[in-house]
Amino acid sequence: MSATAKQGAIWGVGHTITLFIFSMVLMGLNIEIDGSVFVLFEFIIGLVLVWMGLDVVNKSKNLFYDRENKNIKSARVPENNKTKLSLKSLAVGLLHGAAGSSVIIALITTTIDSIYLKFTYIALFSIGLIISMSLLSILMTMPLHRKIKFIPFRYFKVITGTLAILIGVKILYQSSAQIGTLFI
């Protein structure tokens, strides 16, 4: 489970990096940005969710039931793919941070006057974010570590991938409607 917590933490670090970059640029230059710009990032998040969902569903074909030994093969991530998985978590965290930073930055810039307090708030928020992403990752994978008996792992992956696709399509639909109003 420590590998799962690490992936969640890496996702949180990606989110934090983006939040800090946006915050430093916007608050450092005293710029207020229109929230509609972040709608484009949400659209990209929708695309990424659809892509990741399709990837999970496609990779679930690699899980097969070995009738002779009565177990699931290829359920573990090979060692050479762990770095790739970490980079993927970081990239998704960076995008997630880009899409979600607008609300935090808007809240901070309108309610806190001191630049020191603004960055303290962002630092504390980021620490909480990294910890909560780690814990959420552990909680979401606990059933897998307990060897779910009522649903084969392959089908669990297909369901998870399909949900990611559906959520991605919903985000694409909602953000494209907002993007359409930007140009009217």
Structure report:
The chain has 184 residues and is mainly α. It has one domain. The protein is built from five helices and two strands. It has helices at residues 2-28, 36-59, 82-111, 115-145, 153-182, and strands at 64-66, 71-73. It has a two-stranded antiparallel ribbon with strand order 1-2. Strand 1 and strand 2 form a beta hairpin. Helix 2 (36-59) runs antiparallel to helix 3 (82-111). The protein is globular and about 55 Å long. It starts with a helix and ends with a helix.
Radius of gyration: 19 Å
- The H/E string reads HHEEHHH
Number of domains: 1
Query: Going across the major beta sheet, what is the strand order?
Result: 1-2
Q: What is the 3D form?
A: globular
Low-confidence stretches: none
Beta-strand proportion: under 5%
Which structural class fits the helix and strand makeup? mainly alpha
Give the terminus-to-terminus CA distance. 49 Å
Largest sheet data: 2 strands, antiparallel
Q: Helical amount among residues, as a percent range?
A: over 70%
**Total beta strands:** 2
Question: Mean pLDDT, rounded to whole units?
Answer: 76
Number of helices: 5
Question: Summed up, what is this model?
Answer:
The chain is mainly alpha-helical and 184 residues long.
